[in-house]
Structure formats: C-alpha cells, structure tokens
Amino acid sequence: MMLLHLLNKIAPLMELTLSVAHFNHKIRRESDYEEEFVKKECEILGIKFYSNSGDVIGYSNKNKIGIEEAARKLRYDFLFNTLNDISYNKIATAHQGGDLLETVIYRITRGSGIYGIGGLTPVNEKLTRPMLIVTLKDVLKYVTINNVKYVNDPSNLSVEYARNRIRHNVISELYKINSNVEENVLRLVETVWEYRNTVDIEFKKRVKFKENTYIFKLYEDIFDAEVLRKIFLINGTYPPNMEETKKILRMKSSGERFITPLKIVKKKDELFVRVEKKEE
Amino acid sequence: MMLLHLLNKIAPLMELTLSVAHFNHKIRRESDYEEEFVKKECEILGIKFYSNSGDVIGYSNKNKIGIEEAARKLRYDFLFNTLNDISYNKIATAHQGGDLLETVIYRITRGSGIYGIGGLTPVNEKLTRPMLIVTLKDVLKYVTINNVKYVNDPSNLSVEYARNRIRHNVISELYKINSNVEENVLRLVETVWEYRNTVDIEFKKRVKFKENTYIFKLYEDIFDAEVLRKIFLINGTYPPNMEETKKILRMKSSGERFITPLKIVKKKDELFVRVEKKEE
C-alpha cells in the first residue's frame, strides 16, 4: 500500500501511468477480503485494477515444487502477462529491506556464493523494486505519518517453513544484537550488486556467443569461475559448486565435460561451451 | 583436544615438534580444572605444556573493551609471546566450522562488506587454523571414534551477549532449515577468501609505498574501493563505509580528505595516502 500511494503521488511529476495487478493466492482465509480491500483503494485513487487467482496448491503438487515457489511462479506469470496485455513498461514490486535481509539469510543457509547473496535486485529487466533500500521500520513510519490504510498479514504467506523460521525466529534475534541489521545487510548487498555488475562486465569482455556456443577466454582470475557459473544460470541450470567449477576451468587442453545441457571443451586458454539442444 | 591428538599423531610424519600453550581466562568456575585437565593430557602424551592467566575483567574495564575482546587480546598476546620465547614457528588454533559460521552471522549482523565476511582465515602469518574446514559434527565424530577425552564447556566463554545469541538461538534455527548450513557457509567463505586474495593481488599491482605515502593508481573498478579500505585496515583504522569510500575515490583531481591518521590527496588517476605521525 505504501508503494501504491508513493507511486500515485509521484506519477504526475514523473509522467507515469499506473495500474494495479493483484494476484489472489487463495491460500489464506483473508485472501478474498484482501483483494476487495486493494480493489476499493484503487477505486478511491482512480487507478485501474486487474486481478487473477490460481490453484497454487494444485500447481505445487503437479510440478513437485514448494508452495511458495508455486505461488511465486503463478504470481509473476500473471504480472508479466498483464504487463503484456495492457502494454505497460514496468512492473514495480514492494519488496523492502526486511525482505532483502530474509533472502540473504535464506540463501546463506541454503548455500550460495558471493554472487548469489545479492538476492533480490533493485532492477531486473522489466521488474523494478523501488522500495528495496527502504527498511521495514521506515515503511511503518510512512504508513503511519501518511495515514495509508493497509492490511496486516501476520502470516505473510506463511506457507513455507524455512522462510517463516527466518522471519520469525532468526531475524528477531539478529535485531536484538544490532537494531541496524537491515541497513547493515543492505550495505553488504549493495557491494554484492556491484560485484555482480563487475561479473557482467567481465562476462561481456570474455565471452562471445556464436552458433549455439559460448567462446570463453580464460583470464585465470576469480571472475573465470563467476563467468562460467553465469553461463549455466543463463541456460536455466543450477551451476556446479565452486570446487566443480574450478575443476572444469582447470581441465587440460582438449579436455571435455558434459553437464546437461552444456558441453564444455577446453582448448588452450579458451572454453567452448556448447548448448546441446533438447531431444524432443 | 581433537587438534592436540591429531597433530600429535601426524607430528612424526611431518617432522613437527609440538608444545601446548594454555591461557586460563579465570572467568568461569571450571577454568582451573580445565587447565589441570589439559596439563595432565599433555603429560600422558609427553608434550610440553605452557600456561598463563590474566585479569580479563580488569583489562576489559581498564581499556573499555568487551570481555570477549579483552580475553582474545590477552590470550593471543600470551600465545605469541610463548611462540617467541620457545622459538617455535607456528601457532595452531582449533577453530572449526561452527566458529566460522558464528563469525559470518555475527559480521553480517554488525555490518560488513564482502571482504569482511571472510571472518576467520585458515592461515594468517604465524597463525594457522587447520580445523577451520572441519564441521562441528565431524569434531564430535572424531573424538568419539578416537576416544579423545575432552571437557565440555556448554557456556563456551559465555561472556558475550551477541555471540551467545548467535550460537544458541540463531544457529540452532538455521540448522533446522538446512542441516548442511556449516558446509554451505564454509563454501561461501572459501569464495570470499579467494576474493580477498584477489584484493591482495590488486593491492600489490596498484599501490606503491614510499616515504610514508601510499601511491595508489585508480583503475575505476570494484577493487579500487577494496584496496582503499585495505590501506585503512593496515593502518589500524576501521575503514569508512562503502558510500564514504566511493566519495573519496570520486574526489576531483587535487581534492583532499583527512581521516585520522590518513591524509588523502587525489591527483588525476592517483590517490596519495599519507600516514600522518601521531603527535606524542
């Protein structure tokens, strides 16, 4: 609601046209009431309102993925479809510093390299998260001072075990240790974003793509591994861990590795990473 | 005790001569008993035993530092003094994966950049931590299988509020989310160690030291900031945060900044960082 009110305020100044897209996960009792609440608020503000819902639990069972992952997939599919349908340019989500902190702890716990800690990014192609550097404390201040109506969802999509443990048990403890933990993590993540930028720059410098093959010149520094991992990510595959990545980089000349869907061949100081087509 | 038994086993193979140095913090009731315990174990193994104790709480009050920090200072002073006295080459400490995890969470919470997450390092000049990549689970396995006697210290120097919160409340939660959290964080930290190595290499490439002045050639990449921060660290000063660091890097040519004890002058694409002598 803060994001909505904020964007609505600055829309005339920045010549933005706003619409709201609301995905109703239908997981909690309050879901329908919340949709109604947002819809009414949009009516008051004179903003177009689009909504949809989906069978999150069914989708989760069918695709053997967690409920939160299923919810995310259906939600973002809906957001991007709506963006297309109404020919808008950008999706803005309301993720804030608390979400970022949660994601950092989550990723560290589940296993991540430096690149992965970056978690949520402020801008990602058509997606923008203008509130990512705003702390939860400041969100609460803003809605109070500006008298913004909102719905408090104490469960906050409380369907995923891990995320909830972090949100309720871990982060509260970290706050007791340092009440600026959100700002501190934000500052860390900002340096990681910069690190990611550097990886992207090095990627462009080192990698050419021709005829389904990445031709990747090795520099024998820390970014070789990051660039190789990025090739995996681009091709929708979870990259091998650092140890494995290094083994690939250190193959002998004319060495070969095959990690679906990538065939990797080394020639002198270059890797040739070929994307094998799926057999349909 | 695992470290002692392990090193004692491999000492003949690696032609090591071992001694034990034990610092008695005298903070807990069990402190004297523990010193006695280690001393006896050394007698059984035929290893020389050195010990000392210090007034940790007095030192903490006098220097206005936390008790854990005071304990660490006195302990390491004793270890390095003993190293000198007996003319040995290395100090090995028994920090393991659990300590590393704790340090990572602690640093993230208190505020740290990528460099700082590295926390404990496996080798640092005369200090070596051979067990840093061993998980706490494996330590417990080792002492059980090899029948190594040990003293269980449930409080584990339980004098510091923050560390204890992390140890007892946070890490136990993270384990419930992912039982491999220690290994996962270790893998993250390994990439950070590599990042640190890269910073050190870039430091040597970019920085010359002459007549109390670091002459620092700027490359306008992510490592400029890391190298500048390292100059602060070398001079025993906590470096400015990333935002401040960037402001310094982006000064106009002939711009000046003074952050005790460093005077920083920019000339074209170079920073001149002069260490001002303290007035005694």
UniProtKB/TrEMBL annotation, chains A, B:
Catalytic activity: cytidine(34) in tRNA(Ile2) + L-lysine + ATP = lysidine(34) in tRNA(Ile2) + AMP + diphosphate + H(+)
Keyword Cytoplasm appears in the UniProt entry: yes
Domain of life, per lineage: Bacteria
Keyword Ubl conjugation: no
The protein's Enzyme Commission number: 6.3.4.19
Family: Belongs to the tRNA(Ile)-lysidine synthase family.
Main function: Ligates lysine onto the cytidine present at position 34 of the AUA codon-specific tRNA(Ile) that contains the anticodon CAU, in an ATP-dependent manner. Cytidine is converted to lysidine, thus changing the amino acid specificity of the tRNA from methionine to isoleucine.
Descriptive protein name: tRNA(Ile)-lysidine synthase
Natural source organism: Tepiditoga spiralis
Name of the encoding gene: tilS
